[in-house]
């Protein structure tokens, strides 16, 4: 592409001088900032769906197992492994639910499927939803041998987060967060709820609302839990999951997703992404208004200086936290003479950097909508099942797939995106890699 050719010419021109390292760094940063405008969609929905004998429905969660294999959890309670190199897919069997002391709450909504897939730091275990939606199943990698099914919640498990290689936290619709100790893969010892001082019944922390997400940051050793009561609670894993702080959210409608990176927490709601710095007395830093504010923010990611979030209508937005502005998703052609125009210096208005769409910062106040709406990546057609719900309510309509999850690979050069129809009862699936 033209921007890449210009950068290569500049590097060749300065190869013998002392500015080569500076130019390489600037060119690398330029490509990172321009990534959304350079990506191409590789949709694999049809390939994966046809490779399996049973119908699939709505991919809710995903995780990179390694550099070339992906794990995907669906509403139909399938755990899929997709090999991006070989182009193959297989369904991972889940162990049968073990006996339990407490009955599971019955619901008219049926099964919820797998809402969480997460690999531990060592890469030798994966925690995911169980055959019973109220359980969390831990499998050994890479052979997926059952390690333990964590039984204790009485309602759907919405989230799981590793806090060490052998400890995992789960959050459930039963309004509790639990910490579990997992045995070594080859020890054969049973896992049990982690026993803490003063908690003879196991380490549970009760919330006033349903727990929709939990995230742990290994740099700050901070565990955050998102509750439908309209807050983020910071929990201490070394002190019986004691809540060290509760941060009330200004935008607290449809809280379904959260991400944490270092000292920044991002929470998605119906019309905003709220950014929180837990170190500050006033936790909320600002709120980024979602241009697609009718269907809610369904997934959110933080990677370096980039905030990305997916919506219920399948729109994926990218927000530069340094510039407080959205990144464009259409290429901006730079002039030929980038050196004279200040392309790498950042001081010229005519450089090849993306023309950022500015949005004023909002600190605990209503966010300002962006006019005109910023560019975005739109999820593809995917698969929509023409069932009774479709013919009764959606026949002839264009169905947009909600972006339920999007995750970067380790190099940040590939973005896996998955989802399905937002409407209840409407079955479908969307899976793709943007690269």
UniProtKB/TrEMBL annotation:
| DDB1- and CUL4-associated factor 12 beta-propeller domain mapped to chain residues | 55-336
Query: SMART domains, per this entry?
Result: WD40 (SM00320)
Which PROSITE patterns is this protein grouped with?
A: WD_REPEATS_2, WD_REPEATS_REGION
Q: Where are the WD repeats?
A: 150-182
Q: Which UniProt keywords apply?
A: WD repeat
Looking at the Swiss-Prot or TrEMBL record, what is one Pfam family this protein matches?
Beta-prop_DCAF12
Q: Write down what this protein is called.
A: DDB1- and CUL4-associated factor 12 beta-propeller domain-containing protein
């Amino acid at each position: 592409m033209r921007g890449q050719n210009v950068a290569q010419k500049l590097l060749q021109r300065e190869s013998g001088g002392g500015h080569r390292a500076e130019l390489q760094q600037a060119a690398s940063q330029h490509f990172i900032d321009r990534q959304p405008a350079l990506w191409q969609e590789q949709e694999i929905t049809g390939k994966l769906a046809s490779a399996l004998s049973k119908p699939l429905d709505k991919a809710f969660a995903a995780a990179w197992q390694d550099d070339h294999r992906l794990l995907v959890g669906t509403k139909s309670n399938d755990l899929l492994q997709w090999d991006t190199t070989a182009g193959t897919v297989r369904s991972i069997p889940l162990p049968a639910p073990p006996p339990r002391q407490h009955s599971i709450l019955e619901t008219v909504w049926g099964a919820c499927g797998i809402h969480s897939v997460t690999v531990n730091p060592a890469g030798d275990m994966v925690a995911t939803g169980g055959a019973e939606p109220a359980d969390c199943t831990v499998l050994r990698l890479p052979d997926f041998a059952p390690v333990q099914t964590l039984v204790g919640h009485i309602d759907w498990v919405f989230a799981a987060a590793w806090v060490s290689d052998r400890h995992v936290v789960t959050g459930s619709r039963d309004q509790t967060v639990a910490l579990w100790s997992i045995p070594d893969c080859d020890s054969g010892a049973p896992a049990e709820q982690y026993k803490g001082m003063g908690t003879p019944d196991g380490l549970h922390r009760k919330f006033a609302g349903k727990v929709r997400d939990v995230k742990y940051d290994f740099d700050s050793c901070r565990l955050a839990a998102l509750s439908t009561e309209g807050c983020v609670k910071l929990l201490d894993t070394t002190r019986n999951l004691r809540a060290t702080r509760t941060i009330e959210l200004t935008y607290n409608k449809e809280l379904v997703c959260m991400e944490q990176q270092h000292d920044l927490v991002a929470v998605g709601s119906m019309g905003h992404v709220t950014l929180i710095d837990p170190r500050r007395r006033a936790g909320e830093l600002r709120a980024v208004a979602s241009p697609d504010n009718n269907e809610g923010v369904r997934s959110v990611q933080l990677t370096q200086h980039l905030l990305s979030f997916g919506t219920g209508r399948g729109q994926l937005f990218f927000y530069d936290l340094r510039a407080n502005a959205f990144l464009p998703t259409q290429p901006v052609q730079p002039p030929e003479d980038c050196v004279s125009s200040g392309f790498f210096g950042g001081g010229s208005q005519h450089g090849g950097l993306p023309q950022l769409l500015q949005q004023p910062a909002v600190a605990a106040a209503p966010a300002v909508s962006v006019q005109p709406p910023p560019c975005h990546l739109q999820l593809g057609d995917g698969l929509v099942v023409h069932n009774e719900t479709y013919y009764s309510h959606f026949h002839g309509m264009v169905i947009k797939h909600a972006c339920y999850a999007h995750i970067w690979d380790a190099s940040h050069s590939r973005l896996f995106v998955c989802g399905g129809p937002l409407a209840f009862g409407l079955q479908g699936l969307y899976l793709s890699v943007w690269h």
